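Revision sheet: structure tokens.
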Amino acid sequence: TLPNGGTTATVALNDADLCGIFSGAFTNWNQVTNPDNGSLYPAGAITVVYQANNDGTTDLLTAHLQAVCPVPSGTTAVPVTFTVTQNFASLFPSSTPPSNFVAATGSSGVAASLLALSGAGVGYLGPDYTNTFLAPSSSPAKTNNLSVASLYNTTTKADVVPSYQNATLAIGAVTVPSGSNESNPSLWVPNASNPTTGYPISGTSQIITSQCYATHSDTPTVAASVIDFLTLHYESNVSIINGNGFDVVPSVYITAIKETFLSNLSGLKLNIGNKSVCGPLAGR
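Predicted:
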């Protein structure tokens, strides 16, 4: 995200650009190549704003960098071995990023730092802190009005803006667990770190619940309430989620979630409150 005060993408970046910028190999925009015409951007020092707190946005960024880096050839900087992490600074020796990197806390802190840099910085943050093109209902987005960079998808060979629609395209390209694989929790986290379509840096947040819940006189329908909440999340809250720049998972995932965890149409007895599984258990 760049603090240039626009509503749509003003800069296009490819994987080599991302590797160079976030490793510290590129410290000036005249080292960064526009993927649309192969020319270098006009000169100007790059300040990278990263999240100092452990955060899921760092997890998504580093997952993509791990998939597409190392540092571009021809640079003099020490290469960074990118791994998936929520702690960005830990990627560097002694957990100390290069001198042109600035730490901030959370998406709100990154946005504030970018605004203070007045066009000289690049960072990463949630869409609800960017602009109303991405998050039309978000108050921070209205205030910040940050410009965003489009990313070049190497498979579709097109620049892609970080809209929730393009994130959903990326997630939808990942196969939904089926059969016996449905009982493996890790397979329900779509690996879209380098998707064949959509926005190249995309991922999901996880909702973790128990399967079995105890019934008490003051909470007689806990399991049913959890199911109602999740149904509401996937069906009725979509406009609120979209308005803040996010999306529910693609419909094929929603169907699988409902059939596996909110009912037992899958026949795997993984659904919340399944009597044959939860009957002898105390639950939560």
